[in-house]
């Protein structure tokens, strides 16, 4: 289960977005303030009135828009009552349970998710319902939904998060363009995808978990991320999650299951560490055993060159090199003189032709 949401304004644009076909295979208005299966005009009117109420306060964000995305396959078990209950759970955690609400279902690539819009202005209190710590509220709602609907719990925290931050930060500073960064991230098991709202770019790890990309880049601001990635064509967040999970399942099938894959990987790591340790001992000369091959080679060299020291050998090589260089220079000079004499003789044999061309032989 994935839940994303934030406060926003521009009610007119949002109502049209909720009904835009685009990549959606099907769109259905489930609920508008308790009215089931309402008409299109009912949705436009309700969302517009929710946004207008922001004029009664100093805030320009009179709406709270959230998406409820069950995991692949789990959305098929969700009926109308489940979607309504899911919106109730999230609204309660956000403190919006008494506010006006609209629910729209989108189906894309055979998978259904819900868009829920609440009015933030409380007419009873005469102020906006606070949206502070809404991410924590979304996390609490997710856990409650998974328990209520019998869905697989989403891991609360990625124990490899520090490694993810360090890896992505290094890749960001090692690359210079958006295309290079996206490619390098993909080669290291990460998928850079599009986000929404305050998180325009996301990163999906090999387990299908998504994170705000900018938060994973140490010392990098959102403006820099926008500048580098603005011309890149990226997958949507949900598509990237689906792709990562598919790749993970395929890898497990090829290896014969998660247990076998983990065992093979562990064995490989242990072997590599042992080889690295052995190589390190050989290179530093601190191994408890001497290197017989290297020692034998040195002994053979001494036997073949009994009367020549290292310094004497270097002198002999330098002397031969100087002699060869001198010989080569002499030969080149002789060849050059021969070609010059031959050229002069050729010119003297054809004086008339050369005078016609204006050549001064004398």
Characterise this structure.
- The chain is an alpha+beta fold and 362 residues long.
- It has three domains: 2-149, BirA Bifunctional Protein, domain 2 (2-Layer Sandwich), CATH 3.30.930; 161-255, no CATH class; 297-345.
- It is built from 13 helices and twelve strands.
- The chain has helices at 11-18, 40-52, 80-94, 134-149, 161-174, 178-187, 213-216, 222-229, 237-255, 258-284, 292-304, 310-349, 351-356, and strands at 2-8, 26-32, 35-36, 63-69, 101-108, 111-119, 121-122, 127-128, 191-196, 199-204, 210-212, 235-236.
- The protein has a six-stranded antiparallel sheet with strand order 1-4-6-5-2-3, with helices on both faces. The chain has a four-stranded mixed sheet with strand order 11-10-9-12.
- Strand 10 (199-204) and strand 11 (210-212) form a beta hairpin.
- Helix 1 runs antiparallel to helix 2.
- The longest helix is centred in the last third of the chain and has 40 residues, at 310-349.
- The chain is elongated, with a radius of gyration of 37 Å.
- Residues 258-266, 283-295, 305-310 and 352-362 have low confidence and may be disordered.
Task: Write the SSE topology.
Layout (H helix, E strand, L loop, with lengths): L1 E7 L2 H8 L7 E7 L2 E2 L3 H13 L10 E7 L10 H15 L6 E8 L2 E9 L1 E2 L4 E2 L5 H16 L11 H14 L3 H10 L3 E6 L2 E6 L5 E3 H4 L5 H8 L5 E2 H19 L2 H27 L7 H13 L5 H40 L1 H6 L6
Parallel strand pairs: 9-12
Antiparallel strand pairs: 1-4, 2-3, 2-5, 4-6, 5-6, 7-8, 9-10, 10-11
């Amino acid at each position: 289960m994935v839940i994303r949401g934030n406060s926003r304004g521009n009610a007119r644009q949002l109502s049209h977005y909720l009904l835009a076909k685009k990549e959606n295979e099907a769109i259905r208005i489930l609920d508008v303030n308790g009215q089931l299966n309402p008409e299109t005009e009912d949705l436009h009117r309700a969302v517009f009135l929710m946004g207008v109420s922001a004029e009664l306060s100093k805030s320009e964000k009179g709406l709270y828009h959230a998406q409820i995305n069950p995991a692949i396959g789990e959305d098929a078990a969700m009926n109308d009552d489940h979607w309504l209950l899911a919106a109730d759970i999230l609204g309660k955690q956000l403190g919006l349970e008494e506010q006006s609400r609209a629910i729209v279902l989108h189906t894309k690539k055979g998978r259904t998710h819900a868009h829920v819009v609440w009015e933030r202005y409380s007419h009873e209190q005469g102020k906006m319902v606070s949206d502070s710590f809404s991410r924590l509220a979304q996390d609490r709602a997710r856990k409650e939904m998974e328990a209520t609907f019998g869905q697989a719990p989403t891991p609360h925290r990625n124990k490899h998060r520090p490694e993810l931050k360090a890896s992505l930060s290094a890749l960001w500073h090692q690359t210079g363009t958006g295309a290079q960064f996206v490619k390098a991230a993909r080669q290291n098991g990460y998928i850079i995808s599009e986000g929404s709202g305050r998180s325009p770019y996301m990163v999906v790890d090999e387990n299908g978990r998504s994170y705000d990309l900018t938060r994973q880049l140490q010392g990098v601001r959102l403006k820099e991320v926008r500048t580098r990635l603005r011309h890149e064509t990226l997958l949507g967040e949900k598509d990237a999650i689906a792709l990562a999970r598919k790749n993970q399942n395929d890898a497990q099938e090829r290896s014969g299951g998660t247990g076998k894959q983990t065992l093979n990987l562990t064995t490989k790591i242990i072997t590599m560490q042992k080889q690295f340790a052995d190589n390190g001992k050989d290179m530093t000369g601190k191994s408890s055993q001497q290197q017989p091959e290297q020692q034998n080679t040195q002994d053979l060299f001494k036997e073949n060159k009994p009367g020549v020291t290292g310094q004497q050998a270097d002198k002999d090589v330098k002397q031969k090199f100087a002699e060869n260089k001198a010989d080569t220079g002499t030969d080149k000079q002789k060849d050059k003189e021969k070609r010059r004499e031959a050229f002069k003789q050729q010119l003297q044999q054809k004086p008339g032709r050369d005078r016609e061309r204006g050549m001064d032989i004398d």
